[in-house]
Structure formats: structure tokens, C-alpha cells
Amino acid sequence: MTDIILETCNLRCQYPDGTIALQDISITIKKGKKIALLGTNGAGKSTLLLHLIALIKPTSGKIFFQGKELHYNRSSLANLRSRVGLVFQDPESQLFAPSVRQEVSFGPINLGLAKKQVEERVFSSLELSGIPHLVDKPVHLLSYGQKKLVSIAAVLAMKPELLILDEPTASLDPHNSKEIMQLLNTLNQKGMSVLLVTHNVEEAYGFADEIILMNNGLITGQGTPEIILSQDELLADNHLTKPIVLEIFNSLQLAGHLPKNLPIPRSRQALMDLIQNNTPIQDNNGR
Ligand SMILES: Nc1ncnc2c1ncn2[C@@H]1O[C@H](COP(=O)(O)OP(=O)(O)O)[C@@H](O)[C@H]1O
Ligand SMILES: [Mg+2]
């Protein structure tokens, strides 16, 4: 059995107005991974996502889902969309039902599940998203952060194998953003593959097992966050900056305050621990 869920081969997308949003995109999305698709505004990220769930057909190129070429007929689209879930950047363009219960029930009802199973799916996905108390709320009364969580719960109710989120923390405050990132980690620990689309270097660095870098409709880098996000020239070419943890770590090593052979820290805490464990203890006279 293949461990690749989705694969794109030489995708190209030209919009009707002539804009070439994707020039040549070949990527593979492996099972169980946390992947960040990283790039500045206008890089083509959202366009690529719309191709991954077949809302747009490529101008040329192919998509393979579970090893088979995707054909745009009803049954293969239904199969793809029951296994690959996309959370849109703007919850307003995803949510349409009057109440949270109706919104989250929609997918499972469409799958043809029995009433009891639908209720179970609604309950478990709201529980996972940390909002079971909102089940009977009208959607229009929710805060932006709550709408975001409902839009995630609605996709989780489909039990997707691969969860794709388009800039899920954009416009959220730090507390709500942290909650969403924790949820994504929990989902991944439960076996779900997660593709996080972001322009935020810090978020990608803290989260991903693998980074796919995108610029101007092209893939410009792919690899571990430590390798991809420590390359100054590559970052500059993609109009991105180095994550602050890596920047400080590199500067401390360069200045000789930290030894060369340390593991690269992935979080502020890991960096603080390295600094504490590698700083000579001073005596009472500051020596
Ligand atoms: N429906 C559309 N019609 C024409 N051009 C579009 C459309 N959607 C996006 N674009 C253009 O395609 C390029 C990539 O956009 P997008 O995929 O939204 O990038 P990102 O999500 O990385 O910000 C941009 O130049 C954008 O203006
Ligand atoms: Mg976008």
C-alpha cells in the first residue's frame, strides 16, 4: 500500500483573465505528516488547494489520489472530497447553515449516514474542536474565532484522511491561534495528515515535519523546516524571513555563545533550554 495520499504532476493553472497562478507544480503529500505549504501572498497557495480538492481543473497536468489518476466524474470527486477536507480561509465563505448543529451535520448526512451516526459525528467533532457548548447556537451570532472552529468541526465530521487548512490563523488573536495549532497537533497525533497553508514563517517552523515552499506559482523548496528555513538566500528569494528562534540560535552560535554541535531548537522553550544548559554559571562576583 502506498503511503502517498495525494500527488500532483506538472500542474499549471491559467485563470480566464490570463493570470498564470500555477506554473509547474509537482508535490507529494504523504500519510501521517504535518506539512506546511509556505509562501507570500499571491504565491498561488489557495489556487493549488482548490486543485487538490478538485474545485478547479488544471489547465494542464495531473493529480493522483491514492495512487490513481483523478478523473473529474461524480464518483471519484465524491470519493476525494469524503477523504480530503478543506477548511477555507474565510469561514463566511464556508458556513451556510443557520445553526451549528445543521452546519456540522451537513457532511455526514450527505455521506448517507444514519441519524444516530450523524449525531455521533456532530458531537465528536465539536468535542474535538473544543466547542460542544455551541451546538445549538445560531451561526450568525458566533465570534470570528468560533466560526473558524465550527468550520473546522464541519470538515472533521467527514473524518477526512487529509485535512487541509488555508491560513487558519489569519485574523485570529494569539490565544485563538494557539488553540487551533494545538488542535492540529492533536489531530495529527490521532493519525490525520495535515496540510497547513500559511504565509507565516514562525507558524510553519513550529508546526511542520516538512515544508513546501512556494513562490510565483512554482515550488521553490521542499524539506525539513530546519534545512529549508535556515537558508538565507532561499528565504530572501521567496520574500520570507528566518524564524526568530533560528535567527537567535544562529547568532549565538556565530558569536561563540553556544557550541556548534547542538540540536537545532524548534521552539522558544527549546532555545531557552539550550541557552540555560550551555551558559557557564557565574559566581557571586559575576565571574
Ligand atoms: N479567480 C481568479 N481569477 C484570476 N486571477 C486569480 C484568481 N484567483 C487568484 N488569482 C491570482 O492568482 C495568483 C495566485 O493567487 P492565490 O492562489 O490566491 O495566492 P495565495 O493564496 O498564495 O495568496 C494571484 O496573482 C491572484 O491575483
Ligand atoms: Mg490564499
Q: Could you explain how this protein is built, in words?
A:
The chain is of the alpha/beta class. The chain is built from 11 helices and 10 strands. It has a domain at 33-54 and 76-224: P-loop containing nucleotide triphosphate hydrolases (Rossmann fold, 3-Layer(aba) Sandwich), CATH 3.40.50. A 6-stranded mixed β-sheet has the order 6-7-8-3-9-10, sandwiched between helices. Helix 3 (100-110) packs across helix 4 (115-128) and helix 3 runs parallel beside helix 5. The longest helix is centred in the middle third of the chain and has 16 residues, at 174-189. The chain starts with a strand and ends in a 9-residue tail after the last helix. The model has no long low-confidence stretch (mean pLDDT 94). Bound molecules: adenosine-5'-diphosphate and magnesium ion. Adenosine-5'-diphosphate (ADP) binds at residues 15, 17, 19, 21, 39, 41-47.
Q: In a few lines, what is going on in this structure?
A:
The protein has eleven helices and ten strands. It has helices at 45-52, 74-83, 100-110, 115-128, 144-156, 174-189, 201-207, 225-228, 232-237, 244-254, 268-278, and strands at residues 4-14, 20-30, 34-38, 60-65, 68-69, 84-87, 162-166, 193-198, 210-215, 218-223.
Key traits:
single chain, 287 residues, alpha/beta, Rossmann fold, 11 helices, binds adenosine-5'-diphosphate, binds magnesium ion
Strand order of the largest sheet: 6-7-8-3-9-10
Provide the list of bound ligands, each named once: adenosine-5'-diphosphate, magnesium ion
Order of helices and strands: EEEHEEHEHHHEHEHEEHHHH
Number of strands: 10
Mean pLDDT: 94
